[in-house]
Amino acid sequence: MRHDRAGKPAGAEDLIDVARLVTAYYALHPDPAEPGQRVAFGTSGHRGSSLAAAFNDDHIAATSQAICEYRKAQGTDGPLFLGADTHALSEPARTTALEVFAANDVTVLIDTADGHTPTPAVSHAVLTHNRGRASGLADGVVVTPSHNPPADGGFKYNPPSGGPAGSEATSWIQDRANDIIAAGLKDVRRVPYARALASPGTGRYDFLDRYVSDLPGVLDLDAVRAAGVRIGADPLGGASAAYWGRIAEQHRLDLTVVNPLTDPTWRFMTLDWDGRIRMDCSSPHAMASLIAQRDRFDIATGNDADADRHGIVTPDAGLMNPNHYLAAAISYLYAQRADWPAGAAVGKTLVSSGMIDRVAAGLGRRLVEVPVGFKWFVDGLADGSLGFGGEESAGASFLRRDGSVWTTDKDGIVLALLASEITAVTGRTPSEHYAALTERFGSPAYARTDAPATREEKARLARLSPAQVTADTLAGEAVTAVLSEAPGNGAAIGGIKVTTENAWFAARPSGTEDVYKVYAESFHGPDHLHRVQEEAQQVVLAALGG
Predict the structure, then answer these.
(1) Is 146 one of the annotated active-site residues of the chain?
(2) Where are the alpha helices (DSSP H) in 312-411?
(3) Does the global pTM surpass 0.70?
(4) Any residues with CB less than 8 A from the CB of 77 and at least 6 apart, and which?
(5) Residue range 64-93, pLDDT digits in tens
């Protein structure tokens, strides 16, 4: 239910106590027997709040030690690129991690100016170092809970592939970290921060310059500059703040950084749907202040705290639905990038819009549909078998203009700039392009609903099999498929997806919260979508009743 202050400016009562939060990071210690206080890698690393003893010095020390052991076992002996966003807990966690990495004789590269580092800049750094190498491979750690509220912290590992670690790696790191905590941290090697900074293995890397200077390799910024596209970029107080200023200056774009401020309380935000501060650039509530300025710019954009997500605002449509922008971006890129491999497929998560399926078919491109999680796009982006990989939650990346890899993690900065390239090259905004797609392929209605679920109920839902879905119709249409594995790679989806010719629903447990999620879409409009949702709910309730 929408909070009555959603979209309104945050007040003093909404702000975190930064001193209390940081004190709790050092003062509280997790109970290994308490599930909510254990290290748990979801689709984007370990997340939690120090106030709940879910993200504390013990967690990060143990996880960092586990990463040291994991990378040694894998033979990863190149530098580890260490970045962090603007959350209050990110700097303490970055400090803990550096102390452990230095004690384990890991070569660590941190930002030249001690600045904040977006997730895509770390992925770009790892891939740049590893290009053409067979040994001395680099990996990375980003300290970020992404768009989560200010009281949260996050910690994620990117192996030499440059993208999110796979389940085998995250499970090993998670389990080893929990064992280390249960054993009283005796296996953690650690040196004081001053000694870690002075360690011969601690070096500097100009993440900002290397990333910003390389942008013309992935985007036609000459066209953006020549067309004079007026751009408004709102970092939402995140790690991309300095990047947008440099992009405007270095590439001579008509670009205004709408809000260059960073503040760990995020006092300048408008409240999200539930009345909380959340840097979700796909939310009309969190993006309300930028949406209100949409007529100042040809394209306005937002990023979350680590800039791996994007939000696109146009004068004609306001904030674009993430699915709509993905479809428009795919349609444009595959038509414009002549040097991309002829066989480069379109990658999407199975809960993204069916419009993408229709766009891919219209382009004559193969569709690769995978479970939720950007890790499933890493290999395809790395070898060029995917030209584009995108998630319905406003995260995506795509190949360089020459068809080689750009990043294998989500890049909200590049997706935001792409909106300006589309406008410059075609004379139409991405939302106008999407409107044209609906005339050709139909206009789908899409929705996601969340509902509370216990851990046991979530486990039952994750085990749901096609045999348990006995219905042969969905909202009056014949069922064409019942899936528990993604058709693009055969990986388990951790739930179920039911499709018809013009509609589908998918139900899966959340990896980070005690809720389950039901995604649904219909090309027959909102009323038909409501029928799909009602029947999907009956399937889920039957599964939860076990």
Answers:
(1) yes
(2) 322-336, 354-363, 378-383
(3) yes
(4) 71, 135, 136, 137
(5) 999 999 999 999 999 999 999 999 999 999
